[in-house]
């Protein structure tokens, strides 16, 4: 904790001395140029009100030494202390911290996801809230981002942010990531683009973003590239999400109180069909099969997946390759088996979409349409 304060204070001092001034945000530029009113007054008037919800993760982590970049304790620094360690934030937005959890994101479950999403929804309805930033562990940030992207009924910016190194580490990335996230959340250009993930100078759509490396700061990627960048306090968008999100979707977080159980099973040579039976026995309403290649399923697994489908469990073919489209009726006769393919959704994203879809229908054909739509 001592190190956290020392390193972040140093970082803050360096930043405020040389890099970032009150004109950092593109939004503030006209105010700075106006002769009609003092620049600071106009900048104040234009400041967005952002709530920063803390959930834990490495961005709230602390290590024993500054060289602990990958071995440290996550989820220990309170969100208010994280905000205070980046004083530049207060120059671009009025921020308020709110601690909802203090956990590693690997400990997110359906209950916590629903609790977070409902709180975000509540805050977005307040006229005095312009946007939300959620500090989150990076391990499952992509699942939370996708869930919010599909269920929030607001066009106000919602940005998830995390870090790969704790604030105590040399080269800590959390302070700049948080600063950038607040910039993005307070920029009107971010409205109507769905839930965004801001890390490592990039802005990603919650639909596509995924963690691709265990320790590097350059770990988040989207298969079709990020939507934009944040550079020197400027929010720059270059593309838009093509698939429906937030206001355009069929789900409203205020009307969802429980999510059905959806299991993800991973394919490998000599995979054990007993895993399918175990998922069914434990109450899974759907199985996302992270199959090999283009969703191919070993002959010894096909029968147990067919048996699960016969018991009413939905079977979704996904791919463990990490990208690409799983083609219907190609590697397996999906029409014949009444199975579903994920389109391009990664298994963990498909789990989120399937859980939501099952709150409205259990018809495999309708569920397939959901995968092709979102
Ligand atoms: N295990 C941590 C988490 O997801 C890792 C991180 O935040 O980077 O909470």
Automatic annotation (TrEMBL):
It is an enzyme of class 3 (hydrolase). The active site is at residues 58, 138. Substrate binds at residues 105, 138-139. Residues 1-26 form the signal peptide. Residues 49-239 form the L-asparaginase N-terminal domain. GO terms for biological process: asparagine metabolic process. One of its GO terms (molecular function) is asparaginase activity. The keyword Transcription regulation does not apply. Residues 262-371 form the Asparaginase/glutaminase C-terminal domain. Keywords: Hydrolase, Signal. The keyword Protein biosynthesis does not apply. Its EC number is 3.5.1.38. It comes from the Bacteria. PROSITE patterns: ASN_GLN_ASE_1 (PS00144), ASN_GLN_ASE_2 (PS00917), ASN_GLN_ASE_3 (PS51732). Belongs to the asparaginase 1 family. This is Asparaginase. It comes from Cupriavidus necator (strain ATCC 17699 / DSM 428 / KCTC 22496 / NCIMB 10442 / H16 / Stanier 337) (Ralstonia eutropha). The gene is ansA.
């Amino acid at each position: 904790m001592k190190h956290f304060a020392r390193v972040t204070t140093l970082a803050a001092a360096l930043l405020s001395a040389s890099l970032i001034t009150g004109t950092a945000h593109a939004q503030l530029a006209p105010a700075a140029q106006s002769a009609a009113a003092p620049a600071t007054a106009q900048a104040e008037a234009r400041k967005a009100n952002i709530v920063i919800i803390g959930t834990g993760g490495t961005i709230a982590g602390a290590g024993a030494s500054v060289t602990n970049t990958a071995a440290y304790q996550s989820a220990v620094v309170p969100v208010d202390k994280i905000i205070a360690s980046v004083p530049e934030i207060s120059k671009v937005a009025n921020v308020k911290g709110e601690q909802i959890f203090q956990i590693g994101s690997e400990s997110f479950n359906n209950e916590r996801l629903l609790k977070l999403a409902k709180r975000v929804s509540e805050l977005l309805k307040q006229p005095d809230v312009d946007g939300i930033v959620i500090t989150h562990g990076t391990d499952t940030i992509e699942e939370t981002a996708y869930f919010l992207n599909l269920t929030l009924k607001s066009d106000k910016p919602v940005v998830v942010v995390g870090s790969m190194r704790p604030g105590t580490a040399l080269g800590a990335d959390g302070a700049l990531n948080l600063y950038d996230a607040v910039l993005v959340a307070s920029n009107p250009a971010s409205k109507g683009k769905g839930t965004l993930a801001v890390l490592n100078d990039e802005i990603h759509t919650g639909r596509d973003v995924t963690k691709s490396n265990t320790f590097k700061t350059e770990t988040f990627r989207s298969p079709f590239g990020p939507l934009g960048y944040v550079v020197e306090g400027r929010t720059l968008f270059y593309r838009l999400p093509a698939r429906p999100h937030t206001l355009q979707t069929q789900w409203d977080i205020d009307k969802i109180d429980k999510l059905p159980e959806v299991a993800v099973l991973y394919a490998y040579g000599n995979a054990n069909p007993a895993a399918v039976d175990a998922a069914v026995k434990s109450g899974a309403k759907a199985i996302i099969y992270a199959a090999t290649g283009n969703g191919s399923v070993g002959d010894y697994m096909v029968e147990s997946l067919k048996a699960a489908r016969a018991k009413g469990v939905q079977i979704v073919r996904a791919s463990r390759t990490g990208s690409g489209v799983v083609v219907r009726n190609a590697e397996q006769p999906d029409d014949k088996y009444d199975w579903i393919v994920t389109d391009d959704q990664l298994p963990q994203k498909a789990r989120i979409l399937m859980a939501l879809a099952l709150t409205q229908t259990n018809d495999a054909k309708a569920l397939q349409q959901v995968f092709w739509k979102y």
